[in-house]
């Protein structure tokens, strides 16, 4: 298969794809929409893109693009532990406390707020398209005393020195990546452990119906369907118009979830199934 991901090389997305699909053709792309468009246009078989981070929440561009721009089912999810490191060009190793700017992805900068606030107070941060792009930028500009927040894989790939490891605010930092494809995807089990199965639903509520969200949740509750996530996103059709994304902790069956959907549709809701899939976790931390 041809598997595309948010690049360049040495991002956490790249690390996840290498672990989950070690024997496939792996191609980096510059943006999440480019990854999803490639699968939609049959230029790639699979896209692996970030959906949610344990510290910073949802990656909204992924959610919105899946709902509004492409119709591709979620075929799996991969949870990857995230370790952020502070790195500089070897020429600037001894001057890292006097860097003029810190570069990284916006989520990585937010995940390391405490370190930046206490150790580099007043030093500006600049957003890049990915953590690896930040590391690459630091490598290509040795004349500038700048730093990147990125992975150990990025430090090795771009020849940077990690001067402060593990600077993320919380040790349980994890990113949830989704696997999107037109066809079912088989996962090797060498570097991934199985968590369970999920079904993701998109629910549009009828207008001007007081208490409707409570009614929707009740349809799941009385069937004892556990929801691991519920999130609202704008419909982009007008102020105050939202849809809800719901993760049900079970695979699509023939009774419970279809019965829930029928009940919600009878109440005037519009329900779409975005995917019913296996959940995996990368074994161990990045080395």
Largest sheet: 10 strands, mixed
Q: How far apart are the first and last residues' alpha carbons, in Å?
A: 26 Å
Level of helix content?
A: 25-40%
Taking Cα atoms only, what radius of gyration do you get, to the nearest Å? 21 Å
According to DSSP, the number of beta strands is: 15
The ordered string of helix (H) and strand (E) elements is EHEHEEHEEEHHEHEHEEEHEEHE
User: How many H/I helical runs?
Assistant: 9
| 3D shape | globular
Structural class: alpha/beta
How much of the polypeptide forms β-strand, as a percent range? 25-35%
Which parts are unreliable, with pLDDT below 50 for 5 consecutive residues or more? none
Mean pLDDT: 91
Keywords: Amino-acid biosynthesis, Aromatic amino acid biosynthesis, Lyase, Phenylalanine biosynthesis
Enzyme class: lyase
Protein name: Prephenate dehydratase
InterPro entries: ACT-like_dom_sf, ACT_dom, Chor_mutase/pphenate_deHydtase, Preph_deHydtase, Preph_deHydtase_CS
Brief overview:
The protein is of the alpha/beta class and 287 residues long. The chain contains nine helices and 15 strands.
């Amino acid at each position: 298969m041809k598997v595309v991901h948010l690049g360049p090389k040495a991002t956490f997305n790249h690390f996840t794809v290498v672990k989950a699909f070690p024997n496939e053709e792996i191609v980096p792309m510059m943006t999440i929409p480019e990854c999803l468009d490639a699968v939609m246009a049959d230029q790639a078989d699979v896209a692996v893109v970030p959906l949610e981070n344990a510290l910073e929440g949802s990656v909204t561009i992924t959610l919105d693009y899946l709902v509004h721009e492409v119709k591709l089912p979620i075929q799996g999810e991969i949870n990857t532990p995230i370790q952020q490191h502070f790195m500089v060009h070897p020429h600037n190793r001894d001057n890292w406390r006097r860097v003029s700017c810190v570069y990284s992805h916006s989520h990585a900068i937010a995940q390391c707020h405490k370190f930046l606030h206490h150790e580099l107070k007043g030093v500006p941060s600049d957003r890049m398209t990915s953590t690896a792009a930040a590391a690459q930028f630091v490598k290509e500009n040795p004349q500038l005393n700048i730093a990147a927040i990125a992975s150990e894989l990025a430090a090795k790939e771009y020849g940077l020195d990690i001067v402060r490891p593990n600077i993320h605010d919380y040790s349980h930092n994890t990113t949830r990546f989704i696997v999107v494809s037109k066809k079912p995807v088989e996962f090797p089990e060498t570097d991934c452990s199985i968590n369970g199965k999920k079904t993701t639903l998109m629910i549009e509520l009828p207008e001007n119906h007081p208490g409707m969200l409570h009614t929707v949740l009740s349809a799941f509750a009385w069937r004892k369907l556990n929801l691991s996530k519920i999130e609202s996103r704008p419909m982009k059709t007008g102020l105050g118009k939202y849809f809800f994304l719901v993760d049900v902790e079970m695979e699509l069956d023939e009774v419970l979830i279809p019965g829930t959907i029928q009940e919600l549709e009878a109440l005037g809701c519009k329900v779409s199934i975005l995917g019913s899939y296996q959940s995996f976790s990368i074994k161990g931390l990045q080395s």
